[in-house]
Every structure is written in structure tokens, then in C-alpha cells.
Amino acid sequence: MTLSLSPQGSSHRRALLFASAMSLFAGAVYLAIALGMVADDFESPPRPVMLGAGLIYLVGAGVLHLVDRRLLLVGAVANAVVLALFLLSAARGMATVDTVSLAGKSAQIALSILLLWIWSGSSSRIDAA
Predict the structure, then answer these.
(1) Domain map of the chain by residue range?
(2) Is 43 helix (H, G, I), strand (E, B) or coil?
(3) Share of the chain above pLDDT 70, in %
(4) Could you tell me the pTM of the whole model?
């Protein structure tokens, strides 16, 4: 099954590919943190949480092309919650704010914007691939 896109289909398809790239990048950042590829004093949630988040973003990069459009909205909302939790943690000094984390968060912001844009321009119909 694939997403059925509006007459702006070509630009939405490019946006979907870019959203997948942003999801892959965010997943790679989470995995890098989970695998300890950051400074020893890097503050983050426990490794299993970071590993799970990284895997979810990696899987999500592919799932974007296969599922019902409502999941685009779910992904954008879930992504916004993750960003809010990061901001709260950073404000409390429980999350490191550096180039690595900001690069990942930038990808997540772009991902949320793209998911909402694609969701708003896609039809509710799902076509069989």
C-alpha cells in the first residue's frame, strides 16, 4: 500500500523522500548516542531508550512510504512530544545541548514540518502498490 498524493504529487513525493532522509539522520544520531559515540559527560536518557528511539526513526523512514496517511499525523505529533521532552530535559540540565543533539533536533523539526505538509496534501485513499 502507498500513500495517494494530491495533484502536487511530485513535490509531495520529494518531500516524502526528504522526510525519510531526516528520519534516517535522526535515527543515526540516536544510535550514535546509544552506542556511546559521544563525550563521556553527555547527558541523555538510558541507552536502551536511545537505542529504541533510534530504531523507531530508522523503521519510520521506510514506513513513511507504506502506510495510511493518518500515521503521518501520528508521527508528527509523536515527534513534537519527543522534542518537547528534550527541551524540558535540557532546561533542567538533564540533556546535553551540543552540535550532535542540535543536529538531531534540527532533523526532527524538519521531519515534523514535512510530515504535516505531506499529510495536509495527501488524500485519505490508500492505493495498493
Answers:
(1) 21-127
(2) coil
(3) 87
(4) 0.83
